[in-house]
Amino acid sequence: MPYLSAYPRPGQVALLCEGDVIGYEATLFQKWTGAELGNDPLVDIWCCGTSSSMLGISDAIGRSRPIFVIEDRDFRAIDEARDDCERHRKDRESRAVKIISWSAWNRSEIENYLLEPAVLLPVFDTAFGCSDDDIIKAINEILPALALFQASQYAMARIRRAWFLTDPTSALLSGLRFRPEWKDKAMVMPDHLAFRSGLEKNCSAWTMKAREIKCDAVADFDAKLDLWKSCQWHDEFWRSDWAGKEILHWLRVAMTSKFGWPNAESGVREPLDWMMNREKREAQDRPIEAALRPRLVDQFLSVLPSLAAEIREEFEKIKTAIKGYRL
Amino acid sequence: MKLRKVRIENFRAIRNTEIVFADALGAIRPVTVLAGPNGTGKTSVLFAIVQALRGVMGYRTSDVPEPDERDIHTPLSIGGLSPTPPAISVTLEVEFGEEERDAIRKVMTEMSPEERLGDLPNGRVRAVWKYPPERYPDGSVKPVWFLYRTDPRDAVPWFHGRKSAISGWTSRKFRDRALLDKIGGIYLFPQDRSLRSRVMGERLTQDEDSPPTAERKGRELSSVWGVLEYLSNYSRSAPEGIKPEENWEQRIRESFNRICAPKEYVGFMYRSDDPLGAPYFRDNGSTYPLDMAASGEQVIIEYLARLTYPSPMNHSIILIDEPEIHLHPAWIRQLYLALPRIGVGNQYIVTTHSAELYAAAARDQALIEMGQLIEQA
Questions:
Q1: Residue B176 at interface with chain A, using a CB cutoff of 8 Å
Q2: Is the dihedral of CA B97, B98, B104, B107 positive or negative?
Q3: Looking at the partner chain, which of B23, B333, B366 has a beta carbon nearest the beta carbon of A34?
Q4: Which of A53, A61, A165, B363 is deepest in the core (most CB within 10 A)?
């Protein structure tokens, strides 16, 4: 029986990413797929906010169009992220979602790619009328101060990962029959006693598993803080393993504090005061981030062909997968 | 030439608005998209810019009617006497880049040495257009109905740059065509841009028995047909001598093929069954002439042709009213991405109702919302 597509966009492929509808990934993928793939195939970008929302949105659209999913790696090791993605892929495919690829960035998140010197320096030089040295100096002050935040997020990620095994959502109903069946032209409820017995067994196993979990978050935290606390510009790990969003945020704070930002009314550049709570700080930062975002994305795309092979290959892989998928 | 800011008072749908075309850091955006519900004044903004710059720019268009009393925004009055219609005022802040200023200086020195061309602080000019025009004491309209109050006072010759450059080049007063390519102008693509409707209109008035002539075909398909033929002949005239950046037919072909893929613009071809020749397109193995092309193909080829000839539009202000008309969303997306690459240093100001353009411009921080469907108190 033909299935009429109810997909509400013009594209032939849906690309799911995290972030805001006008965020870095949306802006970057819109331009990059337009330039690299054109209309063959036409790719729609779906920004899901968080990785957990990707599961829901993939269900919502993935039966009408093949989807390409790319998650943030965050503080997971590359292998861990790969395993998680594979699990998500299998799970969604079992629900008839058509998946081209379910993968994660090699770096923590998209913002980390914008921390490449060839991207960051020219954009901030122009925006703040300063030199490369001014930006490097600011980064060198920011990184050690951010080490505690980054190490804490790493430790939190380890805890979440360990306790993920205790997620009861799938564990408790695994292998049990509870949906009605169609037999002899009528609906039949499965044996409720068999279900009860299975549930009891699963609950017991789940409780045991929770008790067996070993997670030394403090040791994880100590190890990372020790490694990261003296981080500087010339180190490489912060560009790929830290939360890049936070680095960019604090760099904007530092630069606008020192070099100022044009006043919306007068256009005159004035140093900004950031002595405020997090909520107000983020609100003050939002228009600054919005103004710099397209410049960072455009700069990234213009220098992409000359960036490190690992970055070029990562993007090439996405292109090949989408182009090679049999629609 | 770029438009930094426009302030519009009492013009058509607009009572009072100011639009800034620069981003938070003061850089003028290559593309600005004006969006909003019907009646919020998107087209009025484009018309106001044209009204304020026509005449001195040497830009003639029948797409924007000459101003009259109906263009004055008249607030509704509930009962009582109608208020006195206010006057239209459009204030523009325009700026010229350094390369463009150099080219204008050279052109004006050759074409109008008597014109005083002072320096522009920051390359900026402010121009104010008012309507109704000033009148003599006897009530008759002053011959020049454009009132320019410029700062500095001698700014008007700067606007004459492109007009003088075209005139100098066509009269062969100077040979340096590159000068012309460095000076911007203004161009409007109105909503009514369907070549098909124009062709059909022409055909209704044609004598069925008369044989087609090149002149007739050219008239049928407006100047786009002639532009494409000219560019094709230009490319063929010295295939080895034309620099790639001057092979405009090739550039049109590349842009068209990118925006409209998988459809292709083949070029201007003469065939045994069409000795007069025509611009030909290809799709899925079949080849067809411009008058058989889809409306969307005709629209895209018209954009590309008009922005290429009589000289490449560089450093220009290009206004496009609802480009989504006739276009598939995929082509609209591609057109948005292609615009900044058409010409050098152009500024595109585009109005839209297209969700695709909304999204693309919002992501680029290039979206200006002219209003909401339901305004909050």
A1: no
A2: negative
A3: B333
A4: B363
Lowest mean pLDDT among A213-227, A246-260, B144-158, B358-372: B144-158
Question: Which two three-digit tokens encode residue A196?
Answer: 């009860």
Indicate yes or no: CB of B364 within 8 angstroms of CB of A40. no
User: Are B32 and B180 members of one domain?
Assistant: yes
Is residue B206 assigned to a domain? yes
Last residue of some domain: B270, B297, B312? B312
Same-domain status, B123 and B259:
no
Q: Are residues B53 and B145 in the same domain?
A: yes
Q: What are phi and psi of B320, to 5 degrees?
A: -125, 120
In this prediction the ipTM stands at: 0.88
| Residues B166 and B242 both lie in one domain | no
Strand order of the β-sheet with B274-283 is: B264-271, B274-283, B286-289
Q: Which two tokens stand for residue B92?
A: 């523009």
What is the domain count for chain B?
A: 2
B25 interaction partners in chain A (CB closer than 8 Å)? 126-127, 262, 291
Same domain, B354 and B279: no
What is d(CA A255, CA B310) in angstroms, rounded to the nearest whole number?
A: 46
- Do residues B346 and B228 share a domain? no
Over residues B215-236, mean pLDDT: 70
Q: Are residues B107 and B149 in the same domain?
A: yes
Q: Is position B79 within any domain?
A: no
User: What average pLDDT does this structure show over B125-130?
Assistant: 82
Q: Could you give the CA distance from residue A226 to residue B240 in angstroms, rounded to a whole number?
A: 65
The position carrying tokens 């309209």 is B141
Q: Last residue of a domain, which of B312, B342, B364?
A: B312
- Mutate which of B20, B25, B356 to test chain A, going by most A C-beta atoms within 10 A? B25
Residue B202 has pLDDT above 60, yes or no: no
Whether residue B338 is found in the same domain as residue B366:
yes
Higher pLDDT, B192 or B31: B31
Residues with Cβ < 8 Å from B61, sequence gap 6 or more? B50, B54, B188
Q: Is A27 near chain B, with CB under 8 Å?
A: yes
Q: Distance between alpha carbon A45 and the CA centroid of its chain, in Å?
A: 14
Give the highest mean pLDDT range of A277-286, B111-120, B142-151: A277-286
| Contact yes or no for A38 and B333 at CB 8 A | no
Is residue B190 domain-resident?
A: no
Instruction: Tell me the pLDDT of chain B averaged across its residues.
Output: 83
pLDDT at B340: 92
**CATH number of the domain that residue B175 is part of:** 3.40.50.300
Smallest CA–CA separation between B230 and chain A, in Å?
A: 29
Q: CB neighbours of A277 closer than 8 A, spacing ≥ 6?
A: none
More confident residue, B254 or B112: B254
**Which residues lie closer than 8 Å to A106 by C-beta, 6 or more apart?**
A73, A78, A240, A310, A314
Determine whether the interchain pair B261/A38 forms a contact, defined as Cβ–Cβ distance below 8 Å: yes
Q: pTM for this structure?
A: 0.90
Query: Can you tell me the mean pLDDT for A48-73?
Result: 95
Over residues A32-59, the pLDDT tens digits come to 999 999 999 999 999 999 999 999 999 9
Contact A10/B at CB under 8 A: yes
Domain that holds residue B50: 1-74+84-185+315-377
